[in-house]
Amino acid sequence: MTTEESLDQIDHIAIPVTAETLDGTVEFYLKNFNCSTLYRDNTWAFLRFGNIKLAFVVPDQHPPHVAFVSARAEEFGELKLHRDGTRSVYINDPAKNTIEIMAPYTSPVPAPKEE
Q: What is the pLDDT of residues 82-111, one digit of tens each?
C-alpha cells in the first residue's frame, strides 16, 4: 500500500507564453491569486503558490513541462545543474509530453537571481 509520504512530488508546471505576453500573464496571476514571484526575466517567470510552483516559459527558450521530484532522478539520464542549484533531466513520456525529473533538494534551494 502506498502512503502519502511515499508519493513523489510535483515541483512545478511550466506553461507556454510568448515573450510579448509574459509580463501581462504574470501580472494577471499576481493580481488574481495569492502567490509570489520567485524569478522573472524576459524568457520565463516562476511563481510560488501554497502547494506548487508555476512557471511561464517561452517555448523556444524553455520547454513547457511538468516537473517531478524523484529519488530515482539519475535513473532517467544525466542530471544537469541549474542556476538555482537544482539538478534535473528532461525526458518525454510515451505521449511525447516533456517532463522534468528533478533530484531531491539536498539543501534549501535559493531563489534564482535575476539576470
A: 877 889 999 999 999 999 999 998 755 455
Spatial separation of the C-alpha atoms in residues 13 and 105, rounded to whole Å:
17
Query: CA dihedral defined by 97, 85, 104, 68, rounded to 10 degrees?
Result: -20
Write down the residue that cell numbers 534551494 correspond to: 109
115 pLDDT higher than 70:
no
90 contacts 98 by C-beta, under 8 angstroms = yes
Using the structure block, give the residue that is written with the C-alpha cell 501554497: 50
Q: How many CB atoms lie within 10 A of CB 67?
A: 21
Architecture of domain 8-102: Roll (3.10)
For the chain, the structural domain boundaries read 8-102
* Distance set, CA 102 to CA 18, 28, 38, 66 (Å): 25, 28, 18, 10
Place of cell 529519488: 71
